[in-house]
Amino acid sequence: SNYSYTSPNRYYSASIITMTGITQNNASLAIWISALTSTINFLGTFIGLFLVDRIGRRPLTIASLSGTALALLGLALTFQLSYVNSPKVTFDGGVAENNSCLFESCGVCTSKRECGFCFEGDTEGNYTASCVLSNHSLYDEYSVYGDCSNTTLAAGGIVVYAYDWCPYQYAWITIIALGLYLLFFSSGMAPMPWTINSEIYPNWARATCTSITTSINWSANLLVSLTFLTLTEVLLKHGTFYLYMCVAVCGCVCFTLLLPETRGVPLEQMGDLFSLPVLQRIKKRY
């Protein structure tokens, strides 16, 4: 579950929302949208609570992973469309420092940590824009030179400085995909690993096995959390979500082939269940 994007969502949710461009540098709006997605995550847990003993662990796990994979595909596609269809750079800043930010579009420009996209647009979506060097000392809210280095123009909304995001008219689709991801995840893959993990071990090995699996879980959490921002630079945003989607699909296939239904199985018979051949195991019902 941690390898398919859960940790970045928890720790970087406001940043991910900002990456869509929907907030247009409005930090408070990003936080409120993040709170909304967290509420969806909270409400989704009640779906899992209601269904876990009604439809069983196996169907809920597989359905949850399938849904998260589709939602991750939606996130990847919207970020890719935003990258491919991002506004073009219309003029060069014309100073020597700009040599490191000579790119043709917002997508390529904002994929570089040192650059940002300075633009002024009209109601019809026409942009006058340049790719400029970002001022890291001012938290990347302004550029080193050009119109977006003028705090009066930028603060007044005359020009907009986009660091790590691009203006995109369908950015709201990303928020919907993020909400669907959280809904599918929280209803199945959030509680099911812990539920199944508590049922499948014999008493003599339960403490040790639970400790090992919990350690692996949080190690994966740490790994994904530490590498998320780096992956968005190396693979770009859409490439990162395609990677997470592939992990979710692999998990879905593995659980479909290997995970038996453990609902109603007495602890004493759990070993017998897992000793059955795979096809018999997944068809066995108690």
At the fold tier of CATH, the topology name of the largest domain is Growth Hormone, Chain: A
Strand content: 5-15%
Query: Could you name the CATH class of the largest domain?
Result: Mainly Alpha
The sequence of SSEs as H and E is HHHHEEHEHHHHHH
Number of strands: 3
**Number of distinct helices:** 11
> What strand order characterises the main sheet?
2-1-3
Question: What does the largest sheet look like?
Answer: 3 strands, antiparallel
| Oligomeric category | single chain
Mean pLDDT: 87
Distance between the termini: 27 Å
Structural class: mainly alpha
- Please state the second-level CATH architecture of the largest domain: Up-down Bundle
Shape: elongated
Report the uncertain regions: none
Question: What would you note in describing this structure?
Answer:
The chain has 286 residues and is mainly α. The protein has two domains: 2-83 and 169-283, MFS general substrate transporter like domains (Growth Hormone, Chain: A), CATH 1.20.1250.20; 90-162, no CATH class. The protein is built from eleven helices and three strands; from the N terminus they run ααααββαβαααααα. It has helices spanning 6-19, 27-51, 57-84, 106-110, 151-155, 171-189, 192-197, 206-234, 236-258, 270-275, 278-283, and strands at 115-121, 127-133, 160-162. It has a three-stranded antiparallel beta sheet with strand order 2-1-3. 36% of the residues are buried. The model has no long low-confidence stretch (mean pLDDT 87).
